Amino acid sequence: MTWFWGLVTTLVLSTQVVASETRVYISQIIDHPALNSVKQGLVEGLRFHGYKQGDNLTLEYKIADGNATQAAQIARQFVSGHPDVMVGIATPTAQALVASSRQIPIVFTAVTDPVGARLVKRMDTPGRNVTGLSDLSPISQHLDLLTELLPHTKRIGILYNPGEANSAALLELLKQHSSSRELVIVEREVLRSDDVKHIALRLADEVDVIYAMTDNTVAAAIDDLIASATKRETPVFAGDIVYVEMGAIAGLGFDYYQIGVQTADYVVRILNGEKAGDIPVTVAKGSHLAVNLRAAQQLGIEIPESMKARVTQLY
């Protein structure tokens, strides 16, 4: 009967292996470098904590191609798979996940205004099955830096998608902080990434600088925005340091890979038994000052020495 008990032991151990496998499902609103970096940091952060894909971790990763309806479909698919944790990268996909389940723990990340987006009622006590990280841009610091670099600025151009709650929140903050600085905000709505190029071309003629917010629609076409502005010899100041590498003259922002790593910490706390709703929502830590010398020289802009001394990334 030794073989019988050996078979039983094998079956029990096999069951334990399957039961111990962790399932984390990730939904991302659109494919662009900053959000891709969040996903990469999340996977690396999970690996650091001992959760390895193909070993004891099953990862499901889908991108909604900037489409809210598709984000909702992905959320329903995820719920039917009964994962241990669902992660929403950016506001629209986080909203879709939160609307899809009140039982499965949800971690959002790279979300500008979690309260305004109705993901949580309070940052310190989110409640229900939801928590996560905000990447609220330091708007006041952005304006200080912009006017330090371009002291003659009077009119700042903004492209944004009014359907994105994060963009509406950022625009409101921008208006609040710009009024005390006697800066005029010239805003233009853009509903599709395909429209960014020609709207940016017209806007560049009306302003001294274009401020590229962390708007997902704009981010997906940031190359077009920068190319259009450069054609009109109008500088682009970045709300995301990824844009600086692409040709914006300067920007102050987060390291989105590190935001992903911080997001993994939230996921692991939930996997270790904490309730999502008991974990406070926080604003992601860390910021970097990036400058693109080539882009600045192309537009005849001199980077102040005081700014060069603070640069953490130089292109």
Automatic annotation (TrEMBL):
It comes from the Bacteria. SUPFAM superfamilies: Periplasmic binding protein-like I (SSF53822). It holds the Pfam family ABC_sub_bind. InterPro entries: ABC_transpt-TYRBP-like (IPR007487), Peripla_BP_I (IPR028082). This is ABC transporter substrate-binding protein. It comes from Vibrio agarivorans.
